[in-house]
Amino acid sequence: MEVKKATFKGSWERADQMPQLRTPEFAFIGRSNVGKSSLINMLCNHKGLAKTSAKPGKTQTLNLFDVDGKWLICDLPGYGYAKVSKERRFQFSNMIKYYLNKRENLTCLFVLIDLRIPPQAIDIAFINWAGENGIPFVMVGTKADKAGKKQVAETLENYKVALSEIWEELPTFYVSSSETKEGKPEILGFIQECMAQS
Ligand code: GTP
Ligand code: MG
Prior knowledge:
The protein has 198 residues and is α/β, with parallel strands linked by helices. The protein has a single domain (6-197), classed as 3-Layer(aba) Sandwich (Rossmann fold), CATH 3.40.50.300. The chain has 5 helices and 7 strands. It has helices at residues 36-44, 86-102, 121-132, 149-164, 184-197; strands spanning 6-12, 25-30, 62-67, 71-75, 106-114, 137-142, 173-175. The protein has a 7-stranded mixed sheet, sandwiched between helices. Helix 3 links the parallel strand 5 and strand 6. The chain is globular. The site of magnesium ion (MG) has 5 residues, from helix 1.
């Protein structure tokens, strides 16, 4: 599957303000700066679609994109960004939790982690929360171009170990790079499969 046309639909501060739609929706989450917006642009062949930044905390609202009139992408704000106030962080977390629990057309969530960094407590906490809340999700390791093969294998193994403490079944894991487009066919193929089933 290749994306032909992706367009920005709008951004909202709260999930209950978003239009109720039946189109399958795929959301992207992960720590600030992990590369959510970059991955969305890579998948959609559209560099400026989702705004990216070298500074963490760029995406602060729920941003919706239409893809070929067939599916939707929701770019979520990053979690765990230390530079926003405590109050604002709490708001983010409620905004995200509300969206993930209530969005009826949410088909699958992509949880992004940076392949160069060992599992962080906040990532494990988020994954555990998603699992406990029955949110369908898969994981995507980002910035593979910056991590060596050995580091990629090590990070994946560390996640397996950390998640095995709680979960019997481990999530599907994709390795990606927005720079080299590694992982693009696999992730788009997965999205296509999800849509065929929904
Ligand atoms: P927030 O919206 O702030 O939560 O961040 P985000 O997760 O959307 O990250 P964003 O896509 O804005 O990328 C953050 C930085 O990482 C930017 O400087 C990107 O160019 C860089 N980046 C993202 N993906 C990759 C990648 O696969 N490889 C490399 N080398 N850099 C990447
Ligand atoms: Mg972003």
